[in-house]
Amino acid sequence: MTNVNALWDFDDPAGSEQRLREAADVAEGTERLVLLTQVARALGLQERYDDGHALLDHLAVGDHEVAARVSLERGRLLRSSGDPDAARPHFDAAAAHEGNDALRIDAMHMQALVAPLEQRVAINEQALEVALGSDQPEARDWDASLLNNIGMAHADAGDLEAALATFERALAARERIGDDARTRVARWMVGWALRRLGRTAEALAVQRALKGELDAIGATDPYVDEELAALGG
Asked: What would the CATH number be for the domain defined by 133-233?
């Protein structure tokens, strides 16, 4: 089975589309259908929503996992095009899939994105329970993203203490996974919450450390710069 994740660059959906199409051209059966659902996702990220729907319309769905993937990507297209209410039942259908924990978690996290604010924490926590209990590595590593989303839901609800505690858990998960760029984002979230809580010195230390690391690798991050400006540092 093709490693679909290796074909993705979410900062370059057009390039991802090309790679996914090329892989689908030489794949067969279920593998080909899975790849084409990802082509539809790449089309959506380019705001080519009608093209994405047309592609999904022509997939012959016989496999339960493929059906769940079609529902998930259909929902993403609808949400991205501005119709979250129409997207919701598609996410619900995908979240009912069993067997592929990562797929189920992905659908649950999308359910949370279209849910009312007061329901988002609970839905993400249900997805987190699936991730933490999974023996599938791809599913297990969803914990970092889910914890970040839970933290943001707490922040949106005005509970910054809960947000900070959750962002710290997300940071620990990112450190376990070992992706430097995403770990820096998780550290930024901790610093952001510290500033919002008025813990300025701690927040400044976080953002200065990030700035130093970025300078060392010749990179920039406008969000780090914005936080430093807000902190007067």
From this structure: 1.25.40.10
